[in-house]
Records
---
Amino acid sequence: MPLPAGAQPAAVPERLSRDLPLPVAAAVAATLTYLLVHRSLVDDAYITMTYARNLASHLHWGLVVGETANSATSPLNVLLLGAVTVVVRDPVVAVGVVFVVTIVLTARWLAALAQQLSSSGATPWIGTALLLPSPLLLSTVGLESYLAVALIVGLLRYGAAGRPVAFGVVAGLAVLTRPDLGVVVVVAALGFPGVRRRLFRATGTAVAVAAPWHLWSWFVLGSALPDTLLVKLGQGTWAGYGFATGPLLYLHAYPAAAALSFLPVLLGGIAFVGVLGALLTGRRGGLQRTAAVAALAAVAHYAAYGVLGTPPYHWYYVPLIAGMTVCAALVVGDVLAGARGTAAVAAVPVVLALAMVAVDLVHGTPWTRAAIGSNWATPAEYERIGRELQPLVGTSAVESPGEIGTMAYYCGCAIVDVFSDRGRMVDMIEEREARSGPVGRALLHLNYLHLDRSDEPRPVAFRLEFRSEPPFDAFRSWPVTHWAEGTGRMLLLPPR
């Protein structure tokens, strides 16, 4: 069959040879990485996986079948995992599939961003190599963190290209991934002229993507936003460490893993200073603008959480790490593309990535516990408790000790707290409304306008409690390893 006039038969093979190595390498690396970490998923990841399993098996939104809840912070992550679970029949496998896909998507969007900014072809390799093996990010697998990273890169990719509709689609998905990513969306929308000039179109698209879920959640689940926003805002500090100072806590508890996780933030900060210098001296190219937007969005998200005073959950630092890493990758790529690059410039991200991989491997093959975490037991310990708890409690409800995900996943029984029992959530909502000022009270009332407040807390026949010191008298107890307090026991006790 003759080729159309002007066709170039070598174009497709040439494009494949240019574009294919990165996503293939990313897919292979992500698959191997998931095999490394899949036994170490943190407790909150199992909350998400239980939601996904219940959605796939029963079309039910909640942790306990028959008990509707709205404690899944990331509706999009649950929906994706639920859809994949329908096919693969195992939420743990579904987490791996979504993880690999998001890494490949991140790499492809970084490549497209570098190409449209005329940056070095090394830029997406640098960005992917710094994001994939990050000990902190790997300690969040199963949560929405890598999905958030991909969508942050997508916002930069379409914002820099001046494509408001595509930007709006990604923005809507970002808000469905985590509501707080709205901070990143706003900074990116205002930072890119091509989006800012057509803000109505971008905003309308984002609303069209995100609003259906939030409206359904508002009317059917009783709140437009997940309950976890209210739960986490009221938890205070950990041993005096709030969100703003949380990195210091992790540097103390996990020196090597935390230092390597936050070094890209420092690298991005140095790159941002260079970008500001270029902008102030009149060099206002697309790459400088994009790098600046990435850094400013990261800092804005960090500042917003610092003002809110949330606890230092390690996955809350993902937008900071993602934005600053992309800023660093863009600037290093620009240096290399401008023929000003030296071996030292290229060596910095390479050495950092290799150091991350080394720490990841030293931590275990495979991991049995996240490299950075704050759980009261290892995943294997919680799995054992969950499996042995089910025949002990039967259909009776059990009050959770404060961590619920892994035990609820493996027990399949009614472990209840504010994450799973809406009656307990009603009590918390009303207590917060009573303590809030007029504006806060009005916002809470609006969010929970359609909530059935007649729900009563589910009665419990047992309760679980962690203790690091005796007495350990209980119906049953299990040895556990607390991340900060060391060895202790999880006790099955009578109700309070």
Note: The two ends are 80 Å apart (CA to CA).
---
Amino acid sequence: MTTLVTPSRTLSVETFRADADGCLAYLLIDEASRTALAVDPRVDQVDRLVEALAARDARLVLALDTHTHADHLSGVRRLARRTGATVVAHEASRLQGPTRRVKGGTAFELGATRIEVLDAPGHTPDSLALLAGGHLFTGDALFAGGAGRTDFMGGSAAALHDTLRAFAALPDDTVVHPGHDYVGRAVTTIGAEKADNPLLRERDRAAFVARLSVAAPPPANMAAILRHNLGEVEAAGVSPGELQALLTRPPAPLLLDVRTPLEFESERIEGSVSVPLDQLDARLEELPEGADVVVVCRTGVRATIAAETLARAGRRARVLDGGVVGWRRARLPLRQGRRRLAVDRQVQLIAGTMVLAGVGLGAVVNPWFLALAGFFGAGLTFAGATGTCGLALMLMRMPWNRPIAAAEGGGAVCAVGAVAPTCAAPAEPRR
């Protein structure tokens, strides 16, 4: 947590990082009034934010996204419902539902703290930034060492160039809080970025546009994410305690687990059935018509996408708030299966070992062994730049990373029948 002290008031800034992809959310608390503003909260961070508010004895009054996110589900509306906060959005945003609209040049008060709104188009047309007492919240307009993409959702490299030039005019000691951390540096300053960030250093508009002219693949599930984030669809939630009560009386809801088979095999709620998210469209007919469906994933993100997919198909579904993680935090029972090291950690272990081996052998045996370290280092760089990891794809095909039944030539561990869910016990793990 970062604490900012200004001449007449104190504003605290608490940062929330998503483990998987470096997304950053923020909670700004005016210490005098104990009122708070949430910036860019993900749907799977809502519980953490509510707990932080309670721990700080603060009341959330405002919640906003710095732009319409295309790579993760926004938790703004869910957080507002939980806390009574007002949703804030740029006037260019297509967000549906009650919102307080703002634009560049306007300001609002958080207790005794004045927060200025800056237009920050480029990544998206509705991007905004917030300036509060020398702290700048940039969303995806500016990162440490980079900036947001401009190749989809009405993005404009030329507009982003102008946005970054406006940021560069701020004092060098302005503290920057970006929407993502891709380099292991969640906080930076305008001065540091002017010195080291090639995009902020580029003053020539044509050269800047040329730098950002290469298109990249869109984020996974972008269409579904946008529908959710624009308020076009909204899946209802059920708490772990409520779900536990529903499971004790007939007719019990159908628990549809949309995680990967590997995750499902490792641990699951008793009685749940497995239909991975990427197979859901093709297997909708397997779900009983009229069933009361509760969708489960690790934290609620994939489940929300699945529930909204079901809603468009005319099926009623709710989402387990917090997913399996929330169920575990509520100290409710999980059926344990065969646990294996996650593929991303297997990649880290193998790549790290090869880099160390290459450096060691190159120093002691023969310099040619340094090429081994270079090869794996280049592979990690490529994976980070493209989101594609050849080593991970190879490891996913290894027998130890396949579900037990599939590896042994059997059927699915858990399947949904045409009339009612059926679940078979997995084979005993091999010792």
Note: The longest helix spans residues 343-364.
